[in-house]
Amino acid sequence: MPTAIEIFKHLPKKNCGKCNFPTCLAFAMQLASSKAKLADCPYVTEEAKAKLEASSAPPIRLITIGAGETKVEIGDETELYRHDKKFFHATRYAMTISDQASEKEVAAKLRRASDLRFERVGQVIALDMLAVRNDSRDPTRFAEMVKRVSRESALPLILMSQDPAAVRAAASAANLSRPLIYAATLDNLEGMAAAAKELKYPLAVRHSDLNELADLVEKVKAAGVEDIVLDLGVEDLQQTLERNTIVRKNAVRKTFRGLGYPILTNVIGKERGMAMALMSTMKYGGIVLMEDLDPAHAVPLFVLRQNIYTDPQVPIQVKAGLYPINNPDKDSPILFTVNFSLTYFTVAGDIEKSRMPAWLLVVDTEGLSVLTAFSAGKLTSESVAEALRSTEAMVKSEKGLLIIPGMLSRMSGKLQEATGLKVVVGPKESSGIPKLLKSL
Ligand code: SF4
């Protein structure tokens, strides 16, 4: 991103205020911090626009595959390390279906793909894409399989073929929404680039030598294709780590546009493919292409991704409020916890497991965990009493009993005074909650 002064040089300097800022310099400063859009100035020339847009383009291009609710976006990253800001677009996972697969195999894979869907800390984590592989080398057969998969699944597609004719056949057989073509290589570059340009589909470009890859990218761009994904031709874990890091470093630190695109890692048929998938998730992968994925491998992979792509400055939170668990009534006790998602779902899960009815009061601690919030003064007897009042918890529960987290035992006296409730100090670990609830 250019500095405010660099941007200012290209502005009309009329100081007319039509951009909603009093001067061109003020507008330049807002542009530099991405708080305004260049289009807000009606007088900026086409030449200045082209220059500013080129220099302010993200170091890694944003690529969209598919459309509507299931579309996936990859790229548009600005950081080498997550803690410097955050990573924006999570790694996407794709499972392949061969165009030589039997009826039964295709049905089983489609079922498996739609079943790979889990909920964790209130977020749904799932498989993102399907790839149809042109093993038959027959364009008609490939097109038929693409048609079937696109009819039976809403997931965005990857068209895996070396043959531009097969890609064109698939595009005319089915109404596809921006599938990714995989892949252009030295041997088919011209035909693939022509097909991608004509169909307006993104195109993956593959080469294991990064200099050669950058050359191929230039050729594809010269042919009129802007939406590009890079396959670095990695064969093992070490190459995944090394090449992915080199590409990311060159893109975000040196703004080297030749490699400023998201990375696709193909782990099909590779020894330690799952380890490569994990590595690619940790190290800058945009898409990981796998032959298959079972739940035992999917869950840790999806959870790893969720952890890496969570904004480190914004803890995952649930809405503060009073949550009924196991159909509580006026005789059920109230427990309280914080609105840090991981804590909430752990406590709520343990109450559910007990099968004992209870009210769970979630206090807003800005997503901090129990002890952190307590130490930071964001979880006090007053804030708990206020949460009890605002949620009318004591109207819904007349038992007069409040169970507090075991780590907050020192809060019990004050809380009893502030609320008039009998305070019971709960277990330090929420796994002890079922036993406590059953003993009341
Ligand atoms: Fe300057 Fe354009 Fe804003 Fe007018 S609208 S103040 S010319 S940047």
Q: How would you describe the overall organization of this protein?
A:
The protein is of the alpha/beta class and 440 residues long. It has 3 domains: 4-56, Orthogonal Bundle (3-methyladenine DNA Glycosylase II, Chain A, domain 3), CATH 1.10.15; 63-308, Alpha-Beta Barrel (TIM Barrel); 321-439, Rossmann fold, CATH 3.40.50.11600. It has 17 helices and 17 strands. The strands form 4 sheets. The protein has an 8-stranded parallel beta barrel, surrounded by 5 helices. The longest helix has 17 residues, at 237-253. It starts with a helix and ends with a helix. Bound molecules: iron/sulfur cluster (SF4). Iron/sulfur cluster binds next to α2. Iron/sulfur cluster is lined by residues 11-12, 14-19, 21, 23-24, 27, 41, 43.
In short:
The chain is an alpha/beta fold. It has 17 helices and 17 strands.
Q: What's the total number of strands?
A: 17
The first-to-last residue Cα distance is: 61 Å
Give the proportion of residues in helices.
Answer: 40-55%
Overall tally of structural domains: 3
